[in-house]
Design a protein that fits this description.
heterodimer; A: mainly alpha; 2 domains; about 75% helix; flat; B: about 290 residues; alpha+beta; Four Helix Bundle (Hemerythrin (Met), subunit A); 5-stranded antiparallel β-sheet; about 60% helix
Protein backbone atom coordinates (compact mmCIF):
# COMPACT_ATOMS: atom_id res chain seq x y z
CA UNK A 1 0.00 0.00 0.00
CA UNK A 2 1.37 3.38 -0.90
CA UNK A 3 0.70 6.28 1.38
CA UNK A 4 -0.69 9.40 -0.14
CA UNK A 5 1.69 12.30 0.46
CA UNK A 6 0.83 14.23 3.61
CA UNK A 7 1.72 17.63 2.25
CA UNK A 8 0.66 19.27 -0.92
CA UNK A 9 3.18 18.81 -3.70
CA UNK A 10 2.34 22.19 -5.16
CA UNK A 11 5.44 24.27 -4.25
CA UNK A 12 3.46 27.45 -3.74
CA UNK A 13 1.17 25.76 -1.26
CA UNK A 14 4.08 24.23 0.63
CA UNK A 15 5.72 27.61 0.86
CA UNK A 16 2.64 28.98 2.54
CA UNK A 17 2.68 26.03 4.98
CA UNK A 18 6.39 26.50 5.72
CA UNK A 19 5.68 30.15 6.41
CA UNK A 20 3.20 29.08 9.11
CA UNK A 21 5.86 26.90 10.75
CA UNK A 22 8.29 29.76 10.53
CA UNK A 23 5.95 31.92 12.60
CA UNK A 24 5.85 29.20 15.25
CA UNK A 25 9.63 29.29 15.64
CA UNK A 26 9.62 32.67 17.36
CA UNK A 27 6.91 31.41 19.71
CA UNK A 28 9.09 28.44 20.69
CA UNK A 29 12.01 30.74 21.42
CA UNK A 30 9.86 33.02 23.59
CA UNK A 31 8.47 30.05 25.53
CA UNK A 32 12.02 28.74 26.04
CA UNK A 33 13.09 32.12 27.44
CA UNK A 34 10.02 32.27 29.71
CA UNK A 35 10.80 28.76 31.02
CA UNK A 36 14.40 29.75 31.79
CA UNK A 37 13.21 32.89 33.56
CA UNK A 38 10.75 30.91 35.68
CA UNK A 39 13.47 28.40 36.56
CA UNK A 40 15.55 31.23 38.03
CA UNK A 41 12.43 32.66 39.67
CA UNK A 42 11.58 29.37 41.40
CA UNK A 43 15.16 29.13 42.70
CA UNK A 44 14.98 32.69 44.02
CA UNK A 45 11.53 32.16 45.58
CA UNK A 46 12.75 29.07 47.43
CA UNK A 47 15.07 31.34 49.46
CA UNK A 48 12.25 33.70 50.40
CA UNK A 49 10.77 33.03 53.84
CA UNK A 50 7.08 33.27 52.85
CA UNK A 51 5.94 32.48 56.40
CA UNK A 52 7.82 35.54 57.67
CA UNK A 53 6.75 37.64 54.71
CA UNK A 54 3.03 36.90 55.06
CA UNK A 55 3.09 37.32 58.85
CA UNK A 56 4.64 40.76 58.29
CA UNK A 57 2.17 41.61 55.52
CA UNK A 58 -1.03 40.51 57.29
CA UNK A 59 0.10 40.92 60.92
CA UNK A 60 -0.61 37.28 61.74
CA UNK A 61 1.50 34.62 63.40
CA UNK A 62 2.67 31.96 60.93
CA UNK A 63 4.76 29.07 62.26
CA UNK A 64 7.91 28.02 60.34
CA UNK A 65 6.19 24.69 59.53
CA UNK A 66 3.27 26.50 57.87
CA UNK A 67 5.76 28.86 56.21
CA UNK A 68 7.60 25.98 54.56
CA UNK A 69 4.23 24.64 53.32
CA UNK A 70 3.63 28.05 51.72
CA UNK A 71 7.01 27.78 50.00
CA UNK A 72 6.10 24.30 48.71
CA UNK A 73 2.73 25.53 47.40
CA UNK A 74 4.31 28.50 45.61
CA UNK A 75 7.06 26.35 44.04
CA UNK A 76 4.46 23.85 42.82
CA UNK A 77 2.33 26.62 41.29
CA UNK A 78 5.38 27.87 39.35
CA UNK A 79 6.19 24.27 38.29
CA UNK A 80 2.59 23.71 37.16
CA UNK A 81 2.73 26.88 35.07
CA UNK A 82 6.02 25.78 33.44
CA UNK A 83 4.68 22.29 32.78
CA UNK A 84 1.53 23.65 31.14
CA UNK A 85 3.67 25.83 28.86
CA UNK A 86 5.72 22.78 27.82
CA UNK A 87 2.54 20.74 27.28
CA UNK A 88 0.53 23.37 25.43
CA UNK A 89 3.23 24.84 23.19
CA UNK A 90 6.11 22.36 22.82
CA UNK A 91 3.88 19.27 22.85
CA UNK A 92 1.24 21.03 20.73
CA UNK A 93 -1.55 20.24 23.16
CA UNK A 94 -3.03 23.68 22.55
CA UNK A 95 -4.37 22.30 19.26
CA UNK A 96 -4.53 18.53 19.13
CA UNK A 97 -6.93 15.89 17.87
CA UNK A 98 -9.83 14.80 20.04
CA UNK A 99 -8.58 11.22 20.50
CA UNK A 100 -5.41 12.44 22.23
CA UNK A 101 -7.42 14.59 24.66
CA UNK A 102 -9.53 11.54 25.45
CA UNK A 103 -6.42 9.48 26.22
CA UNK A 104 -5.13 12.26 28.46
CA UNK A 105 -8.43 12.67 30.32
CA UNK A 106 -8.31 8.96 31.15
CA UNK A 107 -4.68 9.31 32.24
CA UNK A 108 -5.49 12.28 34.46
CA UNK A 109 -8.39 10.39 36.00
CA UNK A 110 -6.23 7.37 36.82
CA UNK A 111 -3.28 9.35 38.11
CA UNK A 112 -5.58 11.28 40.45
CA UNK A 113 -6.96 7.92 41.61
CA UNK A 114 -3.40 6.82 42.30
CA UNK A 115 -2.70 9.91 44.41
CA UNK A 116 -6.02 9.41 46.18
CA UNK A 117 -4.94 5.89 47.19
CA UNK A 118 -1.74 7.36 48.59
CA UNK A 119 -3.76 9.97 50.44
CA UNK A 120 -5.98 7.26 51.94
CA UNK A 121 -2.93 5.34 53.10
CA UNK A 122 -1.47 8.47 54.68
CA UNK A 123 -4.73 9.70 56.20
CA UNK A 124 -5.51 6.21 57.50
CA UNK A 125 -9.22 6.76 58.30
CA UNK A 126 -9.38 3.55 60.36
CA UNK A 127 -6.81 4.46 63.00
CA UNK A 128 -6.61 8.26 63.02
CA UNK B 1 4.13 -3.85 1.73
CA UNK B 2 4.46 -0.51 3.44
CA UNK B 3 3.02 0.24 6.85
CA UNK B 4 0.01 2.52 6.43
CA UNK B 5 -0.44 5.87 8.16
CA UNK B 6 3.20 6.57 8.94
CA UNK B 7 2.91 9.85 7.08
CA UNK B 8 -0.68 10.41 6.16
CA UNK B 9 -3.40 10.57 8.80
CA UNK B 10 -6.21 8.12 9.38
CA UNK B 11 -9.46 9.60 8.14
CA UNK B 12 -11.39 8.68 11.31
CA UNK B 13 -8.99 9.93 14.02
CA UNK B 14 -7.02 12.50 12.04
CA UNK B 15 -3.81 11.01 13.48
CA UNK B 16 -0.92 9.00 12.10
CA UNK B 17 0.09 5.78 13.88
CA UNK B 18 3.13 6.94 15.79
CA UNK B 19 1.36 9.97 17.19
CA UNK B 20 -1.30 7.94 18.93
CA UNK B 21 1.36 5.36 19.87
CA UNK B 22 3.60 7.86 21.64
CA UNK B 23 0.68 9.40 23.54
CA UNK B 24 -0.43 5.99 24.79
CA UNK B 25 3.18 5.35 25.85
CA UNK B 26 3.37 8.74 27.59
CA UNK B 27 0.11 7.93 29.38
CA UNK B 28 1.77 4.82 30.83
CA UNK B 29 4.81 6.93 31.72
CA UNK B 30 2.59 9.37 33.62
CA UNK B 31 1.40 6.43 35.70
CA UNK B 32 4.97 5.22 36.26
CA UNK B 33 6.29 8.58 37.46
CA UNK B 34 2.94 9.34 39.13
CA UNK B 35 3.42 6.26 41.32
CA UNK B 36 6.90 7.41 42.30
CA UNK B 37 5.80 10.98 42.99
CA UNK B 38 2.90 9.79 45.11
CA UNK B 39 5.38 7.63 47.04
CA UNK B 40 7.49 10.77 47.51
CA UNK B 41 4.50 12.71 48.88
CA UNK B 42 3.61 9.82 51.19
CA UNK B 43 7.15 9.43 52.54
CA UNK B 44 7.60 13.13 53.01
CA UNK B 45 4.29 13.75 54.78
CA UNK B 46 4.99 10.97 57.25
CA UNK B 47 8.65 11.80 57.86
CA UNK B 48 9.33 12.49 61.54
CA UNK B 49 10.51 16.06 62.36
CA UNK B 50 14.14 16.45 61.29
CA UNK B 51 14.04 13.33 59.13
CA UNK B 52 13.52 15.07 55.76
CA UNK B 53 16.86 16.72 54.97
CA UNK B 54 17.14 20.11 53.30
CA UNK B 55 19.91 21.72 51.33
CA UNK B 56 21.95 18.58 50.69
CA UNK B 57 21.93 18.95 46.90
CA UNK B 58 23.94 21.40 44.84
CA UNK B 59 21.41 24.03 43.73
CA UNK B 60 23.52 25.93 41.12
CA UNK B 61 24.37 22.65 39.38
CA UNK B 62 20.72 21.56 39.51
CA UNK B 63 19.65 24.92 38.09
CA UNK B 64 22.18 24.58 35.28
CA UNK B 65 20.92 21.09 34.45
CA UNK B 66 17.33 22.35 34.42
CA UNK B 67 18.33 25.11 32.01
CA UNK B 68 20.14 22.59 29.80
CA UNK B 69 17.02 20.41 29.56
CA UNK B 70 14.83 23.42 28.75
CA UNK B 71 17.26 24.55 26.03
CA UNK B 72 17.28 21.02 24.59
CA UNK B 73 13.47 21.08 24.51
CA UNK B 74 13.66 24.26 22.45
CA UNK B 75 16.30 22.85 20.08
CA UNK B 76 14.35 19.65 19.45
CA UNK B 77 11.20 21.55 18.56
CA UNK B 78 13.31 23.82 16.31
CA UNK B 79 14.77 20.68 14.67
CA UNK B 80 11.24 19.51 13.92
CA UNK B 81 10.27 22.94 12.56
CA UNK B 82 13.40 22.95 10.37
CA UNK B 83 12.34 19.63 8.84
CA UNK B 84 8.86 20.97 8.23
CA UNK B 85 10.48 23.86 6.38
CA UNK B 86 12.72 21.34 4.53
CA UNK B 87 15.96 22.73 5.90
CA UNK B 88 17.95 19.57 6.55
CA UNK B 89 21.18 21.36 7.41
CA UNK B 90 19.49 23.41 10.15
CA UNK B 91 17.76 20.25 11.39
CA UNK B 92 21.14 18.53 11.63
CA UNK B 93 22.60 21.31 13.79
CA UNK B 94 19.57 21.58 16.07
CA UNK B 95 19.59 17.82 16.55
CA UNK B 96 23.30 17.87 17.37
CA UNK B 97 22.65 20.60 19.95
CA UNK B 98 19.88 18.51 21.51
CA UNK B 99 22.10 15.43 21.70
CA UNK B 100 24.92 17.44 23.29
CA UNK B 101 22.53 18.93 25.87
CA UNK B 102 21.32 15.43 26.81
CA UNK B 103 24.89 14.17 27.11
CA UNK B 104 25.98 17.16 29.23
CA UNK B 105 23.00 16.60 31.53
CA UNK B 106 23.97 12.94 32.04
CA UNK B 107 27.69 13.66 32.45
CA UNK B 108 26.99 16.30 35.13
CA UNK B 109 24.66 13.92 36.93
CA UNK B 110 26.86 10.83 36.78
CA UNK B 111 30.35 12.30 37.03
CA UNK B 112 29.70 15.11 39.50
CA UNK B 113 26.39 15.15 41.35
CA UNK B 114 26.04 11.50 42.26
CA UNK B 115 29.70 10.74 43.10
CA UNK B 116 29.85 13.82 45.34
CA UNK B 117 27.06 12.30 47.40
CA UNK B 118 28.81 8.96 47.85
CA UNK B 119 31.77 10.53 49.69
CA UNK B 120 29.64 12.67 52.00
CA UNK B 121 28.68 11.07 55.32
CA UNK B 122 26.01 11.63 57.90
CA UNK B 123 25.84 10.17 61.42
CA UNK B 124 22.39 10.02 63.02
CA UNK B 125 22.80 10.55 66.76
CA UNK B 126 20.81 8.38 69.20
CA UNK B 127 17.99 10.42 70.83
CA UNK B 128 19.53 9.91 74.30
CA UNK B 129 22.87 11.37 73.15
CA UNK B 130 21.52 14.44 71.31
CA UNK B 131 22.24 16.72 74.26
CA UNK B 132 25.87 15.56 74.35
CA UNK B 133 26.43 16.86 70.83
CA UNK B 134 24.38 20.02 71.24
CA UNK B 135 27.41 22.15 70.29
CA UNK B 136 27.26 20.60 66.80
CA UNK B 137 23.46 20.35 66.48
CA UNK B 138 22.20 23.64 67.91
CA UNK B 139 18.79 22.18 68.77
CA UNK B 140 18.08 24.66 71.56
CA UNK B 141 18.49 27.45 69.06
CA UNK B 142 16.24 25.66 66.56
CA UNK B 143 13.52 24.95 69.14
CA UNK B 144 13.50 28.65 70.08
CA UNK B 145 12.85 29.53 66.46
CA UNK B 146 10.23 26.82 65.99
CA UNK B 147 12.35 24.96 63.44
CA UNK B 148 12.62 21.15 63.14
CA UNK B 149 15.51 19.57 65.08
CA UNK B 150 18.84 18.38 63.67
CA UNK B 151 19.44 14.71 64.37
CA UNK B 152 22.48 14.21 62.17
CA UNK B 153 26.09 15.39 61.98
CA UNK B 154 27.25 15.54 58.37
CA UNK B 155 30.54 16.07 56.56
CA UNK B 156 33.56 14.11 55.36
CA UNK B 157 34.46 10.99 57.30
CA UNK B 158 38.16 11.30 58.16
CA UNK B 159 38.69 7.77 59.49
CA UNK B 160 36.99 5.30 57.15
CA UNK B 161 38.49 2.40 59.08
CA UNK B 162 36.04 3.23 61.89
CA UNK B 163 33.28 1.80 59.71
CA UNK B 164 34.75 -1.72 59.90
CA UNK B 165 37.29 -1.83 62.74
CA UNK B 166 35.65 -2.56 66.14
CA UNK B 167 38.81 -1.32 67.92
CA UNK B 168 38.25 2.23 66.64
CA UNK B 169 35.78 3.74 69.09
CA UNK B 170 35.08 7.09 67.42
CA UNK B 171 34.06 8.50 64.07
CA UNK B 172 35.97 11.60 63.06
CA UNK B 173 33.90 13.86 60.81
CA UNK B 174 35.12 17.10 59.21
CA UNK B 175 31.81 18.87 59.62
CA UNK B 176 29.67 20.75 57.16
CA UNK B 177 29.24 24.45 58.07
CA UNK B 178 25.75 23.70 59.39
CA UNK B 179 27.24 21.52 62.17
CA UNK B 180 30.43 23.54 62.61
CA UNK B 181 28.43 26.69 63.40
CA UNK B 182 24.92 25.41 64.23
CA UNK B 183 23.57 28.44 66.09
CA UNK B 184 24.44 30.90 63.34
CA UNK B 185 21.06 32.13 61.99
CA UNK B 186 22.54 31.92 58.47
CA UNK B 187 22.47 28.12 58.91
CA UNK B 188 18.73 27.99 59.59
CA UNK B 189 17.98 27.86 55.88
CA UNK B 190 19.89 26.06 53.11
CA UNK B 191 22.55 27.92 51.12
CA UNK B 192 22.40 28.56 47.40
CA UNK B 193 26.06 27.76 46.76
CA UNK B 194 27.57 24.50 47.91
CA UNK B 195 29.87 25.10 50.88
CA UNK B 196 32.40 22.29 51.42
CA UNK B 197 33.01 20.77 54.85
CA UNK B 198 35.09 22.83 57.25
CA UNK B 199 38.36 21.87 58.97
CA UNK B 200 36.51 21.49 62.26
CA UNK B 201 36.48 17.81 63.17
CA UNK B 202 33.87 16.29 65.46
CA UNK B 203 34.74 13.14 67.37
CA UNK B 204 31.59 11.11 67.75
CA UNK B 205 31.58 8.01 69.91
CA UNK B 206 30.32 4.98 68.08
CA UNK B 207 27.91 4.04 70.83
CA UNK B 208 26.15 7.41 70.45
CA UNK B 209 25.50 6.84 66.76
CA UNK B 210 22.26 5.26 65.64
CA UNK B 211 23.62 4.73 62.12
CA UNK B 212 26.22 6.27 59.84
CA UNK B 213 26.03 6.22 56.06
CA UNK B 214 27.18 8.06 52.99
CA UNK B 215 24.54 10.05 51.10
CA UNK B 216 23.53 7.07 48.95
CA UNK B 217 20.05 5.62 48.54
CA UNK B 218 20.64 3.74 51.83
CA UNK B 219 21.00 6.99 53.79
CA UNK B 220 17.34 8.00 54.14
CA UNK B 221 13.94 7.85 52.43
CA UNK B 222 14.84 11.26 51.01
CA UNK B 223 17.93 9.97 49.21
CA UNK B 224 16.20 6.69 48.32
CA UNK B 225 13.49 8.67 46.48
CA UNK B 226 16.06 11.06 45.02
CA UNK B 227 18.18 8.29 43.49
CA UNK B 228 15.17 6.27 42.32
CA UNK B 229 13.46 9.18 40.58
CA UNK B 230 16.56 10.88 39.17
CA UNK B 231 17.97 7.47 38.17
CA UNK B 232 14.83 6.54 36.26
CA UNK B 233 14.72 10.03 34.78
CA UNK B 234 18.38 9.69 33.75
CA UNK B 235 17.58 6.41 31.97
CA UNK B 236 14.88 8.27 30.04
CA UNK B 237 17.37 10.97 29.07
CA UNK B 238 19.77 8.25 27.89
CA UNK B 239 16.99 6.59 25.86
CA UNK B 240 16.07 9.90 24.25
CA UNK B 241 19.71 10.67 23.40
CA UNK B 242 20.15 7.25 21.71
CA UNK B 243 17.01 7.77 19.60
CA UNK B 244 18.16 11.28 18.63
CA UNK B 245 21.61 9.98 17.65
CA UNK B 246 19.93 7.49 15.32
CA UNK B 247 17.89 10.27 13.74
CA UNK B 248 20.93 12.47 13.38
CA UNK B 249 23.12 9.84 11.66
CA UNK B 250 23.32 9.61 7.84
CA UNK B 251 20.97 6.61 7.91
CA UNK B 252 18.11 8.98 8.64
CA UNK B 253 19.02 11.24 5.77
CA UNK B 254 17.85 8.42 3.50
CA UNK B 255 14.43 8.57 5.15
CA UNK B 256 14.45 12.33 4.59
CA UNK B 257 15.36 11.94 0.93
CA UNK B 258 12.61 9.36 0.38
CA UNK B 259 9.98 11.43 2.17
CA UNK B 260 10.94 14.38 4.40
CA UNK B 261 7.61 14.24 6.18
CA UNK B 262 8.38 10.73 7.42
CA UNK B 263 11.51 11.94 9.26
CA UNK B 264 9.62 15.01 10.53
CA UNK B 265 7.00 12.72 12.07
CA UNK B 266 9.67 10.57 13.70
CA UNK B 267 11.30 13.67 15.15
CA UNK B 268 7.93 14.90 16.35
CA UNK B 269 7.14 11.75 18.35
CA UNK B 270 10.63 11.44 19.82
CA UNK B 271 10.41 15.17 20.60
CA UNK B 272 7.15 14.54 22.46
CA UNK B 273 8.99 11.96 24.57
CA UNK B 274 11.81 14.44 25.18
CA UNK B 275 9.41 17.19 26.29
CA UNK B 276 7.86 14.72 28.69
CA UNK B 277 11.30 14.00 30.17
CA UNK B 278 11.79 17.77 30.55
CA UNK B 279 8.37 18.06 32.15
CA UNK B 280 9.22 15.42 34.78
CA UNK B 281 12.43 17.28 35.60
CA UNK B 282 10.50 20.54 36.08
CA UNK B 283 8.81 18.82 39.05
CA UNK B 284 11.90 16.90 40.24
CA UNK B 285 14.06 20.02 40.48
CA UNK B 286 12.04 22.02 43.06
CA UNK B 287 10.87 18.93 44.98
CA UNK B 288 14.36 17.59 45.63
CA UNK B 289 16.72 20.54 45.28
CA UNK B 290 14.78 23.47 46.65
CA UNK B 291 12.08 22.41 49.09
Amino acid sequence: MNNPPDIAQDPAEHEEYAHGVHQHVSRYLIVGAVLLFFTLLTVALSYVDFGGFFSWLFHVQISPATGSKLNIAIALIVAAFKVSLVGLIFMHLAAEKRLIYRVLIFTGFFVLGLFWLTYLAWYNPVVR
Amino acid sequence: MEIPYTISTRPDTGLWNAKIGIWLFLASEVMLFGGLFSAYVFLRLDAAPGMWPHGLLNVPVGTMNTAILIISSVTVVLAWAALKMRRYRAYWWYMLATILCGIIFLVVKLSYEWPQKFVHFGAYIKPAALEKYEQYLGNHHLTERGLPPRLEITGHLENHEALHDPNVKEYEIAMDPVNADPTNPAMDRPHFFYVPPTDKVAKIEKEDVERIDSFGPWHSTYFASYFTITGLHGLHVLGGVLVFIYMWLPVSKKVYQRNPEHLANRVEVSGLFWHFVDLIWIFVFPLFYLL
